[in-house]
């Protein structure tokens, strides 16, 4: 299944049905009076967060969603039926923006969350509604109100507890495959990962969700390579695991390059807790490993973890560090419970 994280969609709610002009006509009833019913309401357009989806691929093949119109009012005081609603089903983490792409309409973060995007038009009143003591036989009715229409943007931001960042071929996909049941593409050339991936980590009888995104290169914030748009998928993470390739020419420079792109991206990503790790340690001799670790420590300002996804060296320590940062973030986000007082 293809991964799609952005889609532009046209929505329109239903028009209200017009009211009816009708008079009662029965044998032996000389003055039956008006009995035109009201029109039905137009259907609404809703967006709903559902389980089982992790992409917006459905909206590549259908971009127009229209609710049904309300039915006409009829005689004998029969009111028109309400039009059927249109429901857009999206995965958790989807944001809804107005056509300008900046105005946030809704943020769908929980399964079952439901938001009305466009309200259907009210139905028109039939002539029975306009009956008064001085106007016993009104001969007019209201048309239904028009529905609302607009273009909206749907943008998916994956919901994960921790995110992997780094240069291409830094070992992110290998790490994801070694600690989760995910099966990302792994090869010895850059940009094997073309779209974000998710996996569930189970460690020390605890679980958390780990996200892997395509690698960043110099100038990514200006659109070089795959650009930095995939950084949106780690915006919701509580902690970042920054993997630096130990076989690179200079680990410190590689770290600073990625940090520069993260800071240029903004959105508060640079302020998130970060765990730095030197990957592919099994491919380094002791002298090179010591040199690369020292360079990375000077660049990051803290001692990095040393790990190898292939040999599992240092992987458990990295997972524990991630779990600790995640639990700290959850504790900070939890609402403070007021102390009970009699």
Inertia-based shape:
rod-shaped
| Structural class assignment | alpha/beta
Taking all residues together, what is the mean pLDDT? Answer: 87
The residue fraction in helices comes out at 10-25%
Instruction: List low-confidence stretches.
Output: none
In angstroms, what separates the terminal alpha carbons?
58 Å
The number of helical segments is 5
Explained architecture:
The protein has 342 residues and is α/β, with parallel strands linked by helices. The protein has 5 helices and 14 strands. It has helices spanning 58-61, 172-179, 251-265, 286-300, 315-333, and strands spanning 6-12, 45-49, 64-66, 86-90, 94-97, 104-108, 114-118, 149-156, 162-165, 197-203, 206-212, 239-245, 274-279, 305-306. The strands form 3 sheets. It has a 6-stranded mixed beta sheet with strand order 10-11-9-12-13-14, with helices on both faces. The protein has a 5-stranded mixed beta sheet with strand order 3-1-8-5-6, with no helix packed on it. Helix 3 links the parallel strand 12 (239-245) and strand 13. Helix 3 runs parallel beside helix 4. It is rod-shaped and about 110 Å long. The chain starts with 5 loop residues before the first strand and ends in a 9-residue tail after the last helix. The model has no long low-confidence stretch (mean pLDDT 87).
